[in-house]
Amino acid sequence: MSDTDTRVPLLEFRNINTHYGAVHILKDVNLAIYPGEMVSLLGGNASGKSTTLKTLLGMVTPTSGEVVLDGEVVNDKPTSYRVERGVTMVPENRRLFKRLSVKENLELGAYLRNDKDGIAEDLERIYTMFPRVKERLNQKSGTLSGGEQQMVAMGRALMSSPRVLLMDEPSMGLAPALVQTNFELIQQIHEEGIAIFMVEQNANMALSLADRGWVLQTGRVVLDDTAENLLANPELQKSYLGGA
Amino acid sequence: MTAASVPNAAPALLPADTSIDWNRITRFGGLLALGLVFISLAGMPLGLNQRTVIEPVLSLGYLALMWLPFLAGYNVGNEIVLEGMEATKKGPRDLLGGLIVGAIGGVGLSILVLLIDNFDLRDPLVNWSPQLLEFLNFENGVGFGSWIWIPFCGLLGLAGASLQLMSQTMRRAVMTVILAVIVLSVFEFLIIDIVDPLKKVLYAQQGGLKWGAAIVVAILAAAFSLFGREPISQVRSNYNDATGPEKSRQTAVLIGLSVLALIVIPMFTGKITQELLANVGIFLLLALGLNIVVGLAGILDLGYVAFFAVGGYTTAVLTSSNRGEDWPSWFPSEIHWVLALIATVIMAGIVGLIIGAPVIRMRGDYLAIVTLGFGEIIRLLFLSDWLNGYFNGAQGITNIPPADFGIFEIKGTDPRSVFYLVLFFAAISIYVSWRLERSRLGRAWMAIREDESVAEAMGINTVNVKLMAFVVGAVLASFSGAIFATKVGSIFPTSFLILVSIIILVVVIVGGMGNIVGVIVGAFVLIGVLGGPKQPGLLQEFSEYKLLIYGALLIWMMLKRPEGLVPNARRSRELHQDEFLQDAWLKGEVDDAVPDSGDVDGTVAPA
Questions:
Q1: What pTM was computed for the model?
Q2: Residues B440, A111: C-beta atoms closer than 8 Å
Q3: What angle do CA B565, B571, B577 make, to 5 degrees?
Q4: Check whether domain A1-86+162-172+180-244 has CATH 3.40.50.300, yes or no
């Protein structure tokens, strides 16, 4: 880990605390995502995973601590500010704009961009990546199959030309055969140099891809290690990986 | 054969059930009886009995009862043909079903006749009257009335059921004939208003189609249905199949012709039509605005009338010579309509911001309730004693002058001028709506409508964007308010009841939310035919039952046709997604009937 420490983190949590009303959700959470790496946040239900994502994106304001983007504290900056600077979320369960066409979904991903040429270029890139998406361009996205919806959701996220993708449970609600395809897809996006921050319950799969990982338990980071170490960790094996 | 060997075999056709479904028949019959009694006690037959449909055999009052057994008789024979089942052959069974359903319905009326004859329930039920009894007895005494409805409704049910036995072409022809006669007769005033000479040819002295004319109309309608349909559907499918520039050319021609028709027709028609068109236009303007708020941005604004009121009152205050006395002397007074309109638009925008700002952070139901409240608050402010010196309270602001444009004047006594003004603003509104729908802002609205949280995560500033929708809607409503004030010449708080909001919302929903053509059709059908909250429509006799019909229509639409009157193939597909997916699954088009569970061959091309 020492070689990564010399770089500036792309996105960072410094002692973040978040409350919903009076309920304390995130407790002194420290995270750092470096450019181009793939990291994973593990945790059970109600451990604060989704809140972490929302706080990173600015949809939830922390009660204390600092959210740092490229070395700048962005606590009071709106979501749009962070999206413009390359932070993009792929929401849980894909959540496409169902009544809008595939094309409109993709265009909405590029909502904050003004460079027409760049947008057209990215659209082409997505078409070559997912030929199926191109075939369905004018179809309402709600009528697509689950696998196609996943592609559109990824494409929509890529349209904002992200530097880091925040993925909320990418394998949730997918058929087992698709989970594998989906992780290959994530791998492929990662190879283009985009950092991936993946929130997952499917710990085995997530850790086999990731460089590092954190384990969140009732709002507190209880483990912070490299992926290999986490996979080998007997404690984790027992609670998340279903191993002996 | 064991169960394991079944999957590869062709699905065996289940034998069609040929027994009589007594359960269904009694259910339909019971509902029919309740429906007939309800309509009678709601007063519709009596209220409508003044109008003749066909001289001298049929009045609108009896028609108000007769359509129901006919429809029930037809519907009882409807069946859902499931995959693997064969449609039953229609036959005597269905005729018998129709007959019995109708007869059961008739029993309901017979019982009503006996009850009215023996008990007096006039206190709670105003229409529990001797007049109703007379009507139900065909003025032939209780002895006759107490049984005649049973065979009569039975025959109507039988007639309805006989439709089931006809080929589709025949069925269509029969329906066309019935509709043609009814429409021609019910819209008598409109038709005379447009083509005066027809009065002598078609209609009897005291109203209603002459029976001879009715027969001619029926023959013509049948001929049209049998031979005229082909060319029309040809043109339609040509239009639907066209693509690219050809399609836009045809669309342009279509729009051009419609606009031309709307400009030319009022020149030749009488005042009734012009008045009607002007009213439709005023509500169309409102509906177009609400369509942006509800249809595009998905903000359920139930207080939309507030902006209509602000528009009307601002114009009134600035142009009338009889506004409240407390206005300071420097405040502009009796200014030109165009200047007042500019001020009105600005005012509506500001009020939109003021109301919108606190409301817009809420979602769904909460937002709907709060907007409902604001709509009432605005009206109550205009009504209040507190602001009496400004808005004259319940007396309202009168003496609103016509809008003077030099060569022509726009005033309420000349509904044609109002219509042209409305047409102009409607054109602007339609264009603006159309452009907005395709703009970045429009896309942001739709994204928020679909999923507000995800839209926010895309970087859309949801608060600002929703506020924009509110303001654009407010401005479009204020156009309408300004025209309304000038048309009526005076303005009162009672013109801006909650009912206005509801009716505009119904127009938008019935037409098809988020669909401009749908909203236009909705405005013509609802406001034009049934009438606005206080404005009479074509069916003036129905004005008492307007809300009843609005409600029934709304319920029926929500159940059967949630996509609105103007079908949009893709939108209806998504609303009927279950059925669509089932069909697709049966045809083997998708691997899985449940969209979210994913398909297995979701291949990804190697990069």
A1: 0.82
A2: yes
A3: 115
A4: yes
